[in-house]
Every structure is written in C-alpha cells, then in structure tokens.
Design brief:
The chain is mainly α and about 500 residues long. It contains 19 helices and no strands.
C-alpha cells in the first residue's frame, strides 16, 4: 500500500483543508444577508460544484490525517501540521453548521437587554443589531431560548459590541474564540499526555489534528471547543494538586455548556485518591468541595453577566429536537410510533420516557466509572473520558462533534485499546454526516456508513503495535514512531 512521508501527508491535508474552505464560499452555511457581499449565494450549479469540491477536500483531509498518524512525526512537526491544516479555514464562512448565527444573535440579545432564556433570536429587529445573524439562524432555533451559560453569552456579546453585529466580522470574531479554544486544547492535551506516559504527538493527532475537530470547532465554531478546552485545563490543574483552580475552570466550562459538570465528579476522585485521613471526611470533601467552588463560579458569572439564572431551565431545550445519531431518541420514536399504530396513543410521552431512561443509564455508568476510579481500579482522567462518551451515547440529542467531549480526554491518556480504535474510525466517518451547509441529507449518512466500513477494515488490517516506547515517561523521540494512529491495538 502506498504511503507518504509526514511532509507529504501535511501537504495533502493542506490541499484538502483549502478545498473544503474554498467550497465553503459557495456551499457553506452562508448568511441570509451579507451587507459586505462576500458570503452570498452563487446559483445552484456553482453551489453543487462547490459542495463536491468541499467533500473532495474533506476526503483528502481525512486520508492525510489517517496516514499522518502512522508517520511517527515529532510534536513540533505535528503542531506545524495543525497550523497549516487550520489556516485555510480561518477566513472561510461558517462550515457544517449555522450555530454561529445563533451565538451572534444571542450576544446581540444580551446587549439589547432581552431575556435569552425565555425567547429566541426572532425578537431581534431585522434591521437592527444582530438582525442579519437572526435571519440566518436555522428554522427550529429561531424561537428557541439559549441553552448556553452566561460566560459564553458574555463573550458573544463582546464580539457583537466590537463588530457592531456586522455579519462577516462578527463570524470572524467568533472564530477567534474557537481558535483560542484550540490553543487551550493543545496545551492541556500535551500536559495530560506527559502525566499519563502518552506520546504527545499521538495524543495531538487524535485530539487536535482530527478532521472532526478542525471542521466543527474551527470551521463551524461550535462552542463545544471552548467547553472542552476549559474542562481539560481544569483537569490539568487538578492533577497537579490545584483542585480549587481546576474547579474554577470547570465552573467556567459549565457556563459555556453544562456537560462539563461531569468533570467535577472526577476532580473529586483525584482529590480522594491524593488525600489522607478519615474515610468519611475524605469522601465528603471530594464529593462536595469541587461542586461548591464551581457553583460559586457559576453564580458569580451569572450575576456579573446580568443574564439571570434562566439557564437552569433551558438545559433540556436541545433534547426536544430529534437527531438521528441519538440512539435513545431513535428507539423512543420507534416504540412510540409502534404503539401509536397499535393503540392510537401519543408517541411523544413514550419517546420522552426512553430518553429519560437513557440519561438515567448514563448517570449510573458515570457513577460506576467514578467508583472504580476512586477505588484504584482505573485512573481518574481516562475514566472521565469514558464517562463523557457514555453521556453522549445515551443523550437525547447527539451531534457528530459531541464525540469530541470525551475523545480529547481519551486521546491524552490512553495509548492503546478498542476505545481508541473506535474513536479513530468514528472521527473519520462522522465528519461526513453533515453537509457544508449544516444540513444532514440522506446521502450524508450513506457516506458516513461507507467511511465507517472502510475505516473499520483499515484498522483491522493495521499491523500490531510493537508495545510501549522505552524512552522515558513521555515516550518522545523525534522521528521514531510511537503510538501510531490507526495502527493502535488492544
């Protein structure tokens, strides 16, 4: 089978990223109105051609990423590759999602004094601040209250205030936040990898160089990137004994998106294992102290933002929107519709019940993972990664980029195993699930399935890993292959 050098794969990835970005100028998630005339429709023929170009570029990027993971490139080379692959996306219009328009609209709502937790972007004046962004919001989000925390809304408000809400600079302002999140992820992953004896380059390959992250955090500007970056940084501090500072960062991460709260339980586990003294006292401190610190941060951020505590009641908003990747929603819909056909009952209560059972099962799994880690049967940080993956798998709403929540943690802490293999294949396949416009057409699921089959075949054919490196805790020797991407084994 043909193979390129690390430099060759870097160039191939740059070509793929550039093609995806260029295609996005006509087939991306373009705004409904752009007063600058830069991101405007170009007719159906050009749009189709641009979408094909974007898919070709995405495929080149996936191939380059897959191959790059087998080159054993150094950390420095991997960081340079990351810069080159991310660069073409910086000035592109929003890719694979229209969520950034919701972010900008909600920032404008906060600036104008609207209650973002009771009404949606439709309240904005079409000709006023944030009006162009509100007109570009996806249909079902137009009247949906914000599910995000006050810390993120303050950042969105700052972007709107600095740019006047003009669509192009406002989008680029949100992308700067996404790039800052990427830098934070890279910093945290490197530190966690060192602490867990993991190759930094291999960890960065899965966590940061990943096409799923590049397209959805840099290209799509999803605030999940900021949540992940803050959460990982908090975990880094906690593993160094600075659990208060770590809990503060987790509190800020929660004020972006609430799933980061799961990390508090595992900060408690880290504290419990590192402490001495009476068992009850240790357990009580581990269970309560991180939450008290993060809760204080959340309350302070809410009061400082002036948005009110309405975010406590909007955390289930997203779950009302059906996504095909949610197993519990799909099962609930199937059972509900079956009962409707047989008994004439309303399917929604059945679907809701199955979704609730799924979340309950996720909570049980998270508790079991924390218990095992507290008792020394597993390491706390990898257990956090598995807990986040369990939460995603059993959530009522699942998007492709949600996989990144736990994957960044697993990438930094686990060198081998089925989990890493599965995440590798899912990264290479789920990136196809979304069209550059943000839509999810049927053929996107077909492409996802094909990529998943090919990825599984490639992983099974990969040569066995020779074992852990014998060159120190970090296992880093430039030019010497360490835990290579798809070649990782159980």
């Amino acid at each position: 089978m043909w193979a390129l050098s690390a430099e060759g794969y870097r160039r191939l990835g740059v070509a793929g990223s550039a093609a995806a970005a260029v295609g996005g100028w006509a087939a991306g998630s373009l705004p409904a109105r752009d007063p600058w005339g830069l991101w405007v429709p170009h007719g159906s023929g050009v749009t189709v051609a641009a979408a094909v170009l974007a898919y070709i570029g995405l495929t080149l990027l996936v191939i380059a990423w897959w191959g790059y993971g087998r080159t054993g490139a150094s950390v420095r080379a991997t960081l340079i590759t990351l810069v080159w692959w991310a660069a073409p996306l910086v000035l592109a219009p929003p890719l694979y999602s229209a969520d950034v328009y919701s972010y900008i609209s909600q920032g404008a709502m906060v600036l104008e004094g609207h209650d973002v937790y009771s009404v949606g972007p439709s309240v904005l004046d079409p000709g006023g601040l944030g009006g162009d962004a509100a007109a570009s919001v996806g249909g079902h989000w137009t009247d949906t209250p914000a599910p995000y925390g006050p810390f993120f809304l303050v950042l969105a408000r700052a972007v709107v205030q600095l740019t006047g809400g003009t669509i192009v600079p406002a989008v680029l302002g949100m992308r700067l936040i996404a790039l800052a999140a990427l830098v934070l992820i890279v910093w945290a992953v490197r530190h966690l990898a060192r602490e867990h004896g993991r190759s930094e380059s291999a960890a960065l390959w899965l966590a940061a160089l990943n096409p799923l992250l590049l397209m959805h955090v840099v290209g799509g500007m999803h605030n999940d990137g900021l949540m992940i970056g803050l959460m990982l940084a908090g975990i880094v501090l906690a593993t160094r004994g600075r659990w208060i500072a770590g809990s503060v960062l987790i509190g800020l991460a929660m004020m972006v998106k609430s799933p980061a709260a799961v990390a508090l339980l595992f900060i408690g586990v880290i504290m419990y294992r590192a402490s001495t003294g009476p068992l009850v006292r240790r357990a009580a401190k581990a269970l309560l102290a991180p939450g008290l610190v993060a809760g204080t941060v959340a309350a302070g951020a809410t009061l400082a933002a002036g948005t009110g505590f309405g975010w406590l009641g909007t955390q289930s908003v997203a779950g009302s929107i059906h996504t095909a990747l949610s197993a519990t929603s799909d099962l609930g819909l199937l059972f509900g519709e079956s009962l409707r056909l047989l008994l004439g009952t309303d399917p929604e209560p059945v679907k809701s019940a199955v979704q609730t059972l799924g979340l309950a099962a996720a909570l049980v799994l998270i508790a079991l993972l924390a218990w095992r880690a507290a008792n020394g049967r597993s390491a706390p940080v990898p257990a956090l990664g598995l807990a986040l993956l369990a939460l995603v798998a059993l959530s009522p709403m699942v998007q492709p980029w949600y996989l990144l929540w736990g994957m960044a943690v697993i990438a930094a802490t686990q060198a081998h195993g089925r989990t890493v293999k599965v995440l590798t294949v899912l990264s290479a396949s789920l990136v196809y699930e979304t069209h550059p416009t943000g839509a999810t057409p049927v053929y996107a699921f077909v492409l996802t399935g094909i990529a998943c089959v090919l990825g599984t075949f490639a992983v099974r054919r990969a040569p066995a890993d020779p074992g852990p490196p014998a060159c120190g805790p970090a296992g880093e020797r430039p030019g010497i292959p360490q835990e290579t991407g798809p070649a990782m084994t159980s």
